[in-house]
Structures are given as structure tokens and as C-alpha cells.
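User: Before I run my own analysis I want an independent prediction to cross-check against. Here's the chain; please return only the C-alpha cells and, at the end, one sentence I can use as a sanity check.
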Amino acid sequence: MLLSRRPFKEGDDLVEGFSRYAGRLTAVAKGGRRKGSALLEPPVCLEARFRRGRNLDTLSQPTLLNPYSGLKRSLPALLTAGFLSRIFLASVPERDGDVRFYLLLERLFEALGEGLEPALVGLWGQARLLYCLGLSPNLSLCSGCGALNVQGYSAPSGGVLCGKCYEGTGFALSAAAIEFGRLLGERALGEAFPALEPSFKVALGRLYKEHFQVHLGLDAHYFKRILPE
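Assistant: C-alpha cells:
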């Protein structure tokens, strides 16, 4: 599954993505800029010949499996797919062979192509990516003292905080937004979700942004205009 493509040299492209068998990869796509290479336009699922190299891996003889035409017909869906592609590539180490990342991306792109709400897919994708990385934010008890009544979130603390531990650190988070965040971790895409209120979108978007920044070191530019209104 190719997520990124940029010119390399002599008509080749440097591509990044995930393979069911090789994991997170960066490779030179031979002849990637020649006539007929539009099938390499991300996001796209291909079958190709892959070879490990001493310095760079190579990709050749691509055959199109899924162009994800459905999501490419919708600008919000395409923007969300691009955002998810960027944070997956930035968060998962090179050559990580965990197949869950490939399968998760496959489900996310299918959902966007099926017309599911892009903002919901984007938030769900971030929640599940953090889960696969073992970095899910704590959205149940206070991360400081274990209290039940939580009202704020702090990325350095790893999750939600009660009023006593919160004391202005991090930012306030409503009980309804916290509950929606819990549902993102419990329900599959396609299951029923409550309406995604604009305030939930903003609050949870900020929560995941700060969590990725603090725990994975992602730069703020990854999160600019990520979820279309």
C-alpha cells in the first residue's frame, strides 16, 4: 500500500508505505515517473516485486489492486486519507513488520471510500494507531490519583485528570467528549456512534495531536487542517 511518492532520480520515484509481508517500507519505484505510472498515485494498493537492498529497497513490476477511487472522489475523504498516511509514516518505525498497521490502513481507506464521515474516520484511525503502538491515552480514571471524576487532559500525564490533579495543566475536556473518545477505542468502524459534535471534534483532535507530539515527537505541521469541516 503506497502512501507517499516523490521524484528520486533518472525517472524513478521514492515511495513509502506498508506491505502486508514486509511492513513499513521506503523503496525506489523503478520507472515511477514514466508514462503509465499514474497507478502509483497515493493512496493506492498494489502488488509488486519487492527486493531488499544494501542501502535502498526497490519496487518494480507493479500491478494495481485497489486505486481507492471512492475516497478520491471526495475532497474531505482524500484530505483525511492524506493526513492518516502522514501520521502512520511518521509514527511507525522503518521495516516494522507488524501487519496490524497495514490492515488498519486498509480498513480506514475502505471506510472513507464507503462514505463514512471523514472526521470520525480520522479520529478513529488516530485512536487505533496509538493502540497498536502501545500508546493509547488513558481516558478512564485520573492518571494522577485514580479518581473517577475527571475533567481535563494532560499529554505528559498520559491521559485524563481529576479536578485536584488537573489544576490548569493541559486543557479542559467535557465528560461527553471523554465518553466519545472511549467509544473510539471500543467500537469498530461501521458500528453506531453518537453524533460527532463539533466540540468533540475539536477537543479530541487536540487530545490526539498533543499525545502524538509528546509521546512520539511528531511536529505540529502534521496536524494542520487535518480534518475538514
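Sanity check: The chain has a mean pLDDT of 90.
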